[in-house]
Design brief:
By secondary structure, the chain is mostly helical. It has helices at 2-32, 39-57, 82-87, 89-97, 99-121, 131-153, 180-202, 204-214, 216-221, 226-248, 258-273, 278-295, 298-303, 307-322; strands spanning 60-69, 75-81, 169-173, 176-179. The chain crosses the membrane at residues 15-35, 95-114, 183-209, 230-251, 263-291, 303-322.
């Protein structure tokens, strides 16, 4: 039973990332009708926002301490981060230690601006083009963004450690220990998902957006500039992907290809959940994450070698053969 519960927890952990990325993908497809293959790159950029803030907070100045010497006998050179000099030893060290959560505030405006520029500068020109054209141009954009990150940050993964207070394990259930940061990531994903659904469900802006997703032309005839609202939704979708990347850094060290690693799986999640269905994207993300976790168990791999690599695609094939629109997809979208 403990092993089963651990696999469920692992699945919810993986499913959190799938659900957040798929949620942003579905927001873009549902509002703009665009198949955005650059969405994984937004996840990667979010992770590197955390790396960037960490480097900014660790900027230091050097002083010479004549009372201490290095291994050559020369006066020791001491590096002191500016934040420690400005805020004091304890406060400055705490700011550096909590750089990943603080990167949320750093990443939100950056991701909103990137989403806005991406939509206004490129995506808007492909609204009425075939999906194949959208896939090609956004996939090309993803490669460009990936190479820019590689040029600035290098090809090696960069560690972004969790705060010391959250770097250990917690007892989630009696006798079951689990990494604290993974629990935080799962809870964080629930908060973000809940915030997006609440925004769409209970605000006037969100209600107009949902109406535009259902019937764009009618909303436009009412004198509402739905295009501006959809542009903002693209920015929000970019923000969701970016926040998912920021908080994922301590789980998997950011690297320039992490966006591509999640992109294909996230599109499978969207298709399984149903193109254009926000609840379907979230449900499919957690479901496929749990299935992938169970398929990674040692006895399962011994029984069916390689099943952990293809389980998501097998499930996708079965669901689409039985229900082409996906689990919660709207009729006529996928057919």
């Amino acid at each position: 039973m403990d092993a089963i519960l651990l696999q469920i927890l692992n699945g919810l952990d993986k499913g959190s990332a799938y659900a957040l990325i798929a949620l942003g993908l579905t927001l873009i497809f549902g509002t703009l009708g665009v198949v955005n293959f650059a969405h994984g790159a937004l996840f990667m950029i979010g992770a590197f926002c955390s790396v960037t803030l960490q480097r900014i907070l660790n900027l230091s100045f050097e002083t010479v301490d004549p009372t201490r010497t290095d291994f050559l006998g020369n006066p020791a050179v001491i590096k002191t981060p500016y934040v420690i000099d400005w805020f004091g030893e304890s406060t400055g060290a705490a700011i550096i230690d909590w750089s990943v959560p603080l990167a949320i505030l750093f990443a939100i405006p950056i991701m909103l601006v990137i989403g806005y520029v991406m939509e206004r500068g490129l995506i808007k020109h492909f609204y009425k083009r075939p999906h194949a054209d959208q896939i090609l141009v956004t996939f090309g954009l993803a490669i460009v963004l990936q190479e820019i990150i590689k040029a600035f940050y290098g090809a090696n993964p960069i560690q972004t450690p969790a705060p010391e207070a959250l770097s250990g394990v917690v007892e989630v259930l009696p006798g079951i220990l689990y990494p604290a940061w993974r629990v935080v990531y799962f809870c964080f994903s629930l908060v973000v998902i809940g915030a997006v659904f609440a925004f769409l469900q209970f605000t006037t802006f969100g209600m107009v957006v949902r109406a535009g997703m259902a019937d764009r032309e009618t909303v436009g005839l009412l004198g509402i500039d739905i295009d501006k609202r959809f542009t903002l939704m693209f920015g929000i979708a970019a923000g969701v992907a970016g926040l998912a990347g920021v908080m994922y850094g301590p789980i998997n060290a950011p690297n320039y290809h992490m966006g591509m690693d999640f992109l294909v799986l996230s599109f499978v999640v969207v298709v399984v959940g149903g193109m254009g269905s926000l609840p379907g994207a979230v449900a499919a993300g957690f479901l496929l994450g749990i299935l992938e976790s169970f398929a990674s168990m040692t006895w399962v791999i011994d029984l069916i070698p390689g099943i952990n690599q293809i389980i998501i695609y097998l499930v996708a094939i079965i669901i689409l053969l039985v229900r082409p629109r996906g689990l919660l997809g709207r009729k006529g979208v996928m057919e």
